[in-house]
Here is the input.
Amino acid sequence: MQIQILKSKIHRVRVTQAELDYIGSITIDERLMIAANIIEGERVQIVNVNNGERFETYVIKGEPNSGNICLNGPAARRVAINDIIIILGYGIMDFEEAKLFKPALVFPNEKTNLLTS
Here is the structure.
């Protein structure tokens, strides 16, 4: 049996931009992507802590160490600049393999969106 399981989590980052007139997606600081084991083009779920919105989009690589978290296209309507969001990535794996799997959990500085270590 195959199941869907949490693979990656960027916990509590601040939205720095929202660009409605864009094709769509979320731009994430590349350093955060690497730390969370998320790749460009990957489907992710966004959870907005401020308003309870939950939606999916795909990832675009942002400038490393910029702290940039930008919701693009229609997703820009689901956030406000300075909202706190959680970014979740999922994987599909064998049930037994999933029991042993440990997701990449990233806890950046909420004010700067940068990693502290």
